[in-house]
Amino acid sequence: MYWLVASKITLRNLFIIIVSYLFYGWWDWRFLLLIAFSSLVDFVIGQYIFKTEDKKKRKSLLGIGLLVNLGFLAYFKYANFFIDSFIQSFSLFGKELEPTTLNIILPVGISFYTFQTLSYTIDIYRKQLEPTKNALAFFAFVSFFPQLVAGPIERAI
Predict the structure, then answer these.
(1) Contact 69, 42 (CB under 8 A)
(2) Domain limits of the chain?
(3) What is the Cβ-side half-sphere exposure of residue 24, based on CA atoms within 13 angstroms?
(4) Which helix (H) or strand (E) holds 88?
(5) What is the pTM of this model?
(6) pLDDT beneath 50: ranges in the chain
(7) Residue 12: its pLDDT value, please?
(8) CB-based contacts of 74: which residues, under 8 Å, 6+ apart?
């Protein structure tokens, strides 16, 4: 289908994004916002890191990217674990707390696309890669459905 869509790479990338988002959103459409936001953050931060020579500003921008992406990953993967551990630690002292968890659903492939977008940003920070100016190409790179849920984590080279 990819080769039949059009001869222009822009339309092919748009096709890949649409198909990938349909694939990813089929399980739970709400997580589309998460992958889109994560992609947008790293695309924009990559552009700003590349444009600035100020080391402090570059490091701050990288820190923002790390904080946003690893923050999402930590929340979805570990929030319930830490809540349960906190409640269980009180039982060691004879204090029973009412167990409540947030019932957070882990988005499919969150680790893969988080580390993939972060590697892109880190490579730009290290001046090993120039950022793409093509948002469609970047979003297609991040959301490419055959490798989105099972990897491998691709480098943006």
Answers:
(1) yes
(2) 29-148
(3) 30
(4) helix 55-91
(5) 0.81
(6) none
(7) 87
(8) none
pLDDT of residue 36: 94
Tokens representing 137 are: 């190409």
- Contact predicate 58/66, CB 8 Å: no
| CB atoms near residue 75 (< 10 Å) | 14
* Measured CA angle at 106 (ends 118, 137), to 5 deg: 35
Residue 106 and residue 78 in contact, taking contact as beta carbons nearer than 8 Å? no
- Which single residue is written with the structure tokens 């990819």? 2
**CA–CA dist 104, 106 (Å, integer):** 6
Q: Do 143 and 149 form a contact (C-beta atoms < 8 A)?
A: no
What was the pLDDT predicted at 112?
85
Report how far residue 121's alpha carbon sits from residue 142's, in angstroms, rounded to the nearest whole number: 12
The pLDDT of residue 79: 78
* CA dihedral sign, ordered 143, 146, 148, 154: negative
